[in-house]
Amino acid sequence: MTTAAFTPETESRFAVARQVADAVLFEGYVLYPYRASAAKNRLRWQFGVLVPPAWGAECEEHDFQHTECLMEPKAGATLAVELRFLHAQRRTVQRACKDSGFETVPELRLEDRVLVPWDEGAEERVEVVTTVAELMGDGVTVPFSRPAREETEPVLDAAGRPVGRLLRRCEEVSGAVRLTARELTGPCRVMRLTAVVENTSTWTPPDGTADRDAALPRSLVAAHLLMGLSAGSFLSMTDPPEWAKGAIKSCRNLHTWPVLAGEPGRADLVLSSPIILEDHPAIAPESPGALYDATEIDEILALRTAALTDEEKREARGTDERAAAVIDLADSMPPEVLERLHGAVRALREVTGPDPAPAPVLIPAGPALPDTYGVQPPDTPWWDPANDSGFDPARDRVLVDGRSLGAGSRVLLRPGLRRTDAQDLFLQGRSAKVEAVLHDVDGGVHLAVTVEGDPGADIRREQGRFLYFQPDEVAPLEDV
Predict the structure, then answer these.
(1) Phi, then psi, of 469 in degrees rounded to 5
(2) Which residues have a Cβ under 8 Å from the Cβ of 138 and sit 6 or more positions away?
(3) What is the Cα–Cα distance from 23 to 158, expressed in whole angstroms?
(4) For the chain, give me the number of helices (H) and strands (E)?
(5) Are the beta carbons of 463 and 40 closer than 8 angstroms?
(6) CB neighbour list of residue 344: distance below 8 Å, 6 or more residues apart
(7) For residue 191, which of 179, 182, 180, 178 has the smallest C-alpha distance?
(8) Using alpha carbons only, what angle is made at residue 247 by residues 186 and 74, rounded to the nearest 5 degrees?
(9) Coil/strand/helix, residue 207
(10) What is the C-alpha separation between 195 and 225, in angstroms, rounded?
(11) What is the rounded radius of gyration, in angstroms, for the C-alpha atoms of the chain?
(12) E strand map for 420-479
């Protein structure tokens, strides 16, 4: 086993998958309107956060990810694994004093930007290369750590004079990657690969307090894995061959989900991500660049960003280099590029022709309120606004197991297997609060909920970003 750098061939294969992995790494990194002062940017790092074990015991977040998938390696095959995560570094703003010292300030106003305190994310990688044979039995464990560090960056005004500095501090972060494989009985040489990523930090909250801001610099943020075979293939977790469905069903995936990645048509690379994706995900070709906003809609974000005031743009540019790049992108986007964002049809096909490749889109995490697509007669409106007048999401109620549920009711989540995805399954058995009862145009009923214990529940309510379940996917906990 070795942790040496990948071979050029492995690096080339992984480069294709990293385009999507980068989107996973920075998903929700900074949200529109890209300013540190925005309420939605005060609760950071929502995906794949592996916290120190001592703090995880006090909260609803996890200190590990557990991935299982099936592979058919050829004789002598090697497995290359890349763990990727963000290491949060705390940025403090300081102003230069007359006595040549510095003082910490809440902001530093410059001509083109306003610098404010902010948590930045430094990309980290841990690379492992091992033979499949070494994975048998006790397998391979690779511990890693990143030391605490501190660095400063001078801040200059438009004339090049020093007016302050940025002080960045990183805390020590440590973890381990554990890889094992077991051959399954059957006519084919199929192996179950298990990959566990753990935060092994020994840090404990001072005085037993549970402070997420203190835990984040010691956490693995947006952690995910890329795993590739030198010879052989992986089996799809969502579309396996008939003979492998039983074995696929027995795989345990906790806080992450593996999909086939890389070039379409190949099955030698897997991306295991805390965000639910389809096999061979890809960035939409129309996308002009990273906008970082969770479940982003490029056209709307580009237009809204371009419409920010000059003062708002100054603050966004001072928030983060990536936020500044988004502002510059929106300001410089040519009309023809913006026009390409105005909708893309991917699902249409000839009825008598072959099926096209799956649409290369990123699937947002969490269950979403389903869209309804139907073919209506030309003279029949698909929706009559007058029929909406009798519905009130805040007051409507629905009968579940003989009990009336509405806004404020507490329920137990039990996702239905016939239409669920892996993100729903993460919430199996969790308690939630009903925020609204919604009706779609086909007469279906959906419960908008927030999960109890979710630290971002208040922000979800403020933004109206709920999770959605149908009545037969919940069980009443009490009458409200």
Answers:
(1) -135, 150
(2) 180
(3) 34
(4) 10, 22
(5) yes
(6) 284, 286
(7) 182
(8) 55
(9) helix
(10) 9
(11) 25
(12) 431-439, 445-451, 467-469, 474-478
How far apart CA 179 and CA 196 sit, in angstroms, is 7
Nearest in space to 227 (alpha carbons), one of 258, 264, 204: 258
Instruction: Please state, in angstroms and rounded to a whole number, the distance separating the CA atoms of residues 49 and 38.
Output: 21
DSSP helix/strand/coil, 355: coil
- Going residue by residue through the chain (480 aa), what tens digit of pLDDT does each one get? 555 567 788 888 888 899 899 988 998 899 888 899 888 888 888 889 999 998 866 677 899 999 999 999 999 999 999 999 999 999 999 999 988 789 999 999 998 899 999 999 999 999 999 999 999 999 999 999 999 999 999 999 888 889 999 999 999 999 999 999 999 886 667 999 999 999 999 998 887 666 788 899 999 999 999 999 999 999 999 999 999 998 999 999 999 999 999 888 899 999 999 988 999 998 888 888 888 877 667 878 888 888 899 999 999 999 999 999 999 988 888 887 877 777 666 666 555 544 444 433 343 333 333 332 233 344 445 455 555 566 788 888 999 988 999 999 999 998 876 555 667 777 888 999 999 999 887 778 999 999 998 887 888 888 788 899 989 899 999 754
Distance (Å, rounded) from C-alpha 172 to C-alpha 203? 9
Burial of 134 (0-12, 13-18, 19+ CB in 10 A): middle
In the block, residue with structure tokens 């729903």: 424
- pTM, two decimals, is 0.73
Backbone conformation region of residue 57, classed left if phi is above 0, alpha if psi is from -120 to 50, else beta: alpha
Q: Tokens at residue 199, please?
A: 């935060």
Which has the closest alpha carbon to 116: 128, 124, 104? 104
CA–CA separation, 423 vs 253, rounded Å? 11
Strands 173-183 and 398-400 come out as unpaired
Backbone angles phi, psi at 296, to 5 degrees: -65, 150
CB 39 within 8 A of CB 161: no
Do 178 and 140 touch, CB atoms closer than 8 A? yes
Give the count of alpha carbons within 13 A of 210, CB side only. 11
Find tokens 């990194």 and name the residue. 29
